[in-house]
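Fold this sequence, please.
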Amino acid sequence: MSNLIHPRLIALDLDGTLLDRQGTVTPRTRQAIADAVAQGVVVLPATGRPLSNLPPVVAQLPGIRYAITSNGAAVWDLGADPMSAVYSRYWNAAEHRTTEPTALIARPMPVELAREAFALYMEYPGALSVFCDGRTYRDRVGMARFGVRYARRTGSTEARQPNDGRFTVVNDLSEWMSRHAHEVEKFCMFFDTPEEAQAALPRFYALEGAEVVQGAPDNIELTAKGVDKGTALLTLADRLGIPREATAAFGDSENDRAMLEKAGIAAVMANGMPQIKALADLVSTGDCDHDGVAELFERLGL
C-alpha cells in the first residue's frame, strides 16, 4: 500500500469495526492504537451512538481525546479524562467523577423535522432511542423492546450495551419531545425485522431535510440533512490542521459510507456490507472478531 499516504487522523466506527461481537477491543487492536498514538496519529471513535453510549473500553483507549457521535451531529473534545466526560451524560452522573466535555460541533435537527420524524417513528412498534446533548433517551416500553431484541438476535455485529446509567429512561417520550424537540441530535429505531425496516425506509427518505441511513439491516437512523460522519471528520481535521489526504476512516456499514467516501483512505472490515467494501482502498482479511482493525493499522505502516 505504498501509494497510500501515512494517515495522521484515523476515525474508527465501533460496532462491527473497533468492537468485537462481545463489545470488547482485542489486545492486538489496543496495542496497534497505542503504537499509532505514540507516532503522533490522532485516533478517535466515530459512531452513531451518542456520547453517553461511548463504551468505557473505548473511552479508556490510549490517546483518545476526540469523539464523533450521533452520526456526526456532535463532535466532542473529551479533555484529559475521557471517561469522566462520558459519565457527565449518564442519568446517574452524580455517582461518578465527571468533567464537562467541549462540543466542537453541535448540529441538532430543525424542530419541525424532529416533530415530523418522531410522529412517523411512532407509527411503528420498534425500539426507539432519541439522542440529545450526548444523552440517550428511551421510554420504558422501548427499554423492554430492546431487551427482547437483544435476547433473540443472532449473527449481529452490534455489541450489547449494559444498562449502567448510559440510558436516561423517561415515562413518556411524547411528553419529553413536547419540551425538547429543538434539541434532538438523532433518532434511531430498531424494527422487529429487517423486512419491516426496508418497508418503512421510503417514508423516512421522503422527509424533507432529513439524512437517513442504516447502521444495521433492521434499523433506521435519522439526523438533519448534511449531517454525517464524513463531514464531521473533515471539519475536525480542518480544526487540527490535517489535510483530507492524511485522514483515514474505518467502517463496515451504511452509516459509515459518508466518512469512507470523504476520508483520504477508506478501510473496510471483512464483515462489511458488500456495497461498503466496494468503497474501500483496503479491506481487512480478519473480521471484527479477529483483529481486523489491527491488521489494517499494520498494513498502513503504523
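The chain has eleven helices and 14 strands. The mean pLDDT is 93.
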